Amino acid sequence: MKIISFEGIDGTGKTTQINLLKDFLIKHNYKVNVRSYPVYESFFGKEIGIHLSSKDIKHNIDARSMALWYAMDRWKDRKDFIATNPDTDILLLNRYTLSNMVYQVIRAGEPDNLAGWVEELEHGVLELPRPDLYLIFDLPFELALINNEGKGKRDYIDGEVDKYEKDIKLQTTARKLYREFGQTQKNAVVIDCYEKDQMLPIEKIADKVKKEVSKIISFD
Fold it and tell me: Which CATH number fits domain 2-213: 3.40.50.2020, 3.40.50.300, 3.90.180.10, 3.40.30.10?
């Protein structure tokens, strides 16, 4: 099974590109599945959703504890997925370990220590598989926020934009870290989704995605 994770700050168009790639791969006779994290209806995902609610001020927990909630959410979903989808050819993920590394590093302010700790937690202790490819979608915060505001109401909060999505300092720092990880992680590549001050058309971004995916998956 090939695993491809779609990463980037909120509002970069990950879900749209996942759906486009899924349809493209299915046309090439691959059996494709998609998982999005957190799984908000799960035991662990519900707790994450509570924390992301801007109205709840009691869930300001430390970075390692928060990282564990995200990791266990993926671990439980992975366990259930393997049991029910043994013949999947390609698994597309909307956020994965790299997201946990980025956002918890920001929370803790420990870039040298916490990123490695999260990676060991998810891939070492919990034995979650490493993805074959991380696609990091890069977009300035101002353009990403416009996309976030057009998403509509989230089921896990009482509003349309959660407290992380509208935090300019957090999102710009996350963007910087994603780009850095795109340079240091051997299985990661940055997809530039804009030119000057405009987001690229969806089709042009999709072409960039296919180009990178073609390096690990045959479309013949």
Answer: 3.40.50.300
Quote the CA–CA distance of 201 and 210 in Å, as a whole number: 15
Within 130-167, where are the H helices? Answer: 141-149
C-alpha pair distances (Å), 107 with each of 22, 69, 114, 180? 33, 14, 10, 17
Please state the domain extents for the chain. 2-213
Predicted confidence (pLDDT) per residue in 69-79, tens digit: 999 999 999 99
Phi, psi of 7 (to 5 degrees): -125, 170
User: What pTM was estimated for this model as a whole?
Assistant: 0.88
Three-state secondary structure call for residue 135: strand
Q: How far apart are CA 143 and CA 163, in angstroms?
A: 17
CA Rg value for the chain: 17
Q: What is the pLDDT of residues 3-40, one digit of tens each?
A: 999 999 989 999 999 999 999 999 999 999 999 999 99
